[in-house]
Amino acid sequence: MEDRQDSLFFKLCSDHLSIEAIPRRAIRVDIANLKDRAILGHELMLWTPHFVVLRNEEGQEITLRRDGRMVIRKAESESVAKRAAAEVMKAVCVVF
User: Fold this and answer.
1) Most buried of the four, 7, 9, 44, 66, by CB within 10 Å?
2) How many CB atoms are closer than 10 A to CB 29?
3) Which domains does the chain have, with CATH numbers?
């Protein structure tokens, strides 16, 4: 199976503090399902019909949209942000 980090394109956000992860192929995330489902290793901080905000055990905050785009905040490095994004993709069972 392809590495999930390789399935994402990463870029620095305009605030220079966050990293955006963009799927290389079109995907769909079932946001409605995340409202009532526990996500292993992640706390659901905010749920809306359009996006969720999660916090992982290391303290990074990940905003996940229905199209699979993510913004990762509070990551100490790019590699930490990439790992956090890959973990979210694995946790929501999105198939690339």
Assistant:
1) 7
2) 22
3) 4-91 (3.30.310)
